[in-house]
Write a structure and sequence with these properties.
This protein is of the alpha+beta class. 46% of the residues lie in helices and 17% in strands.
C-alpha cells in the first residue's frame, strides 16, 4: 500500500511505515514517552496528553489503518498493517493517536463485519471518527471465561427489550469518560447446543442499571483513564434491535473478533520488544561497572544477541500469520494465530527481563518504562485467551493432520 504526503512544494510517495515513523519523529518520540509518564501520574480521568496530535493524524489520513473490511472508507490488509502496528507499539499511547487502539479496534471490526446498517450508523461511524470510545464486556469473575461457552450473564427478551443481568470484570475501557458503548456477551438461549447459547448485544454505557463497581489494577497499574472495570448489570434494558447478528451467534462473533485482536497485540508487542532492546543497549553501553561497560560483562553479549533473535523470529511468525489471515481467512489460520499469541508475549517478557537486569534498580522503577512493559506483556499471556488455550488449538491442528491417515502397512519378509 502506498500513501501520499504533501508539503508546500511537492508530493512524496511513501510506504505507510515510513509515514508513521516520520510522524513519530516529527512530533519527537521522547514527547510520546513523556506523555506516557504524564498519563500515569494524572488523576484527571479526562486527561489526554496528545489530543492535538490525533486531529493532525486524522487530517493526514493516518487513521483507522487496522481495518481489513471497512464499509465506510479505505481498508488495509493485516500484512500491510503489521509494520505500522509495530511502530505504534513502541509507545503505549501512540495507537490511540491513529485511532488504532484496543478495545475499539476489535469492536469496530465486529460492527463492520456483523452489525446492520442502522447499528453501523449509530455506533461504528462515531468510533471510526474517533468521537467516542468503547468497551467489550465478556470476562466474568464467577466462571473460567477462557472457555467462552461458560459465559452466564443473561439477557432475557421481554417484549421489545432485552433485560440484562450479570457481572463482568476486566472490561477494558469502561473507566474512560469517552466510553459510550460496550458490546456485551451474554447467554440468551440456555437450551441450545453448547456453542449456540450466547449472544452479543450493543449496550449504551448510560443505560440505567450499569454500575462500575471498581477499577481493576494490573500489577498495581490502574491504566487510567482507560482502565479495566468490574461492572455490574442489574435489570439493564436495551431494545431488541441492539442484538448483533442473531441469537446464539455470540461464540461465532467472538471467534471472528479475537483473531484480529490477537494479532494486533502481537504486532504492537514487537514494537515494545524493539524499544526494550534499544533501552537495554543504551544503558549497557553508557554504564560502567568493574572498569568495563555493562554490555561486555558476564553473558550480556549473549543476552543482546538472543534478544535480536527473539524479535526477528516473533516478527516473521506474526507476518506469516497476517499473510495467512489475508489469504485463507482467520479460521484456517487459527493455528498460526495461536502460535504467535503463545510465542510473542513469552519472549517479550524474557527480553524485557534482560533489559530490567541491565538497568539495575532503575529497571523496576517509575523512571523507566520497563516495569510497566513487563507487567502488561505478562498480562498479555492471559488476555484474549491464556497460553494453554492456544497451545490446545495448535496441538489439535497438528494431531488432525494424522487423524485420517490409514494404518501404516508393515511389510515383513518370509
Amino acid at each position: 500500500m502506498i500513501m501520499r504526503v504533501c508539503n508546500s512544494n511537492c508530493v512524496f510517495v511513501l510506504k505507510p511505515e515510513k509515514i508513521i515513523s516520520k510522524y513519530m519523529d516529527d512530533y519527537d518520540y521522547t514527547d510520546f514517552a513523556n506523555g506516557e509518564k504524564r498519563l500515569m501520574k494524572s488523576q484527571d480521568p479526562n486527561f489526554n496528553p496528545h489530543i492535538d496530535k490525533k486531529e493532525i493524524a486524522k487530517s493526514e489520513g493516518l487513521w483507522n489503518l487496522f481495518l481489513p473490511e471497512n464499509p465506510m472508507g479505505e481498508s488495509m490488509s493485516n500484512l500491510d498493517y503489521a509494520p505500522l502496528a509495530e511502530i505504534m507499539g513502541r509507545s503505549g499511547i501512540a495507537s490511540e493517536i491513529f485511532n488504532c487502539s484496543a478495545p475499539d479496534t476489535g469492536n469496530m471490526e465486529v460492527l463492520a463485519r456483523y452489525a446492520n446498517e442502522e447499528q453501523q450508523e449509530r455506533w461504528l461511524k462515531p468510533l471510526l471518527n474517533g468521537e467516542i470510545r468503547s468497551a467489550f464486556a465478556m470476562t466474568e469473575p464467577a466462571v473460567a471465561s477462557s472457555d467462552a461457552t461458560n459465559i452466564c450473564s443473561s439477557a432475557v427478551l421481554d417484549g421489545d427489550e432485552y433485560v440484562i443481568n450479570g457481572e463482568k470484570w476486566w472490561t477494558s475501557g469502561a473507566g474512560d469518560p469517552r466510553c459510550k458503548v460496550l458490546i456485551f456477551m451474554c447467554m440468551t438461549n440456555p437450551d441450545n447446543p453448547k456453542h449456540q447459547r450466547q449472544s452479543q448485544i450493543i449496550v449504551p454505557m448510560d443505560t440505567p442499571g450499569i454500575k462500575i463497581e471498581k477499577m481493576m489494577h494490573v500489577f498495581g497499574y490502574d491504566d487510567a483513564p482507560h482502565g479495566h472495570g468490574r461492572v455490574s448489570f442489574k435489570d439493564v434494558r436495551v431494545p431488541k434491535e441492539n442484538l448483533l447478528l442473531g441469537e446464539g451467534r455470540g461464540f461465532e462473533i467472538s471467534q471472528g473478533r479475537l483473531g484480529p485482536g490477537r494479532i494486533h497485540h502481537c504486532m504492537r508487542t514487537i514494537g515494545v520488544m524493539e524499544r526494550a532492546l534499544e533501552l537495554m543497549i543504551k544503558r549497557s553501553e553508557e554504564r560502567v561497572a568493574f572498569g568495563k561497560k555493562i554490555s561486555t560483562l558476564g553473558a550480556n553479549y549473549d543476552y543482546i544477541a538472543e534478544s535480536r533473535i527473539d524479535i526477528e523470529t516473533s516478527r516473521l511468525l506474526t507476518l506469516n500469520a497476517a499473510h495467512m489471515m489475508d489469504t485463507v481467512g482467520n479460521k484456517i489460520a487459527r493455528s498460526e494465530i495461536a502460535q504467535i499469541k503463545v510465542h510473542v508475549p513469552i519472549v517479550a517478557c524474557r527480553l524485557i527481563d534482560r533489559a530490567i537486569q541491565m538497568h539495575g534498580g532503575g529497571g523496576v522503577s517509575q523512571d523507566f518504562p520497563l516495569a510497566s512493559m513487563y507487567a502488561h506483556m505478562r498480562t498479555l499471556r492471559l488476555a484474549d485467551g491464556p497460553d494453554e488455550v492456544h497451545r490446545r488449538v495448535i496441538a489439535r491442528e497438528e494431531l488432525s493432520k494424522y487423524a485420517d491417515q490409514s494404518e501404516e502397512v508393515v511389510v515383513t519378509r518370509d
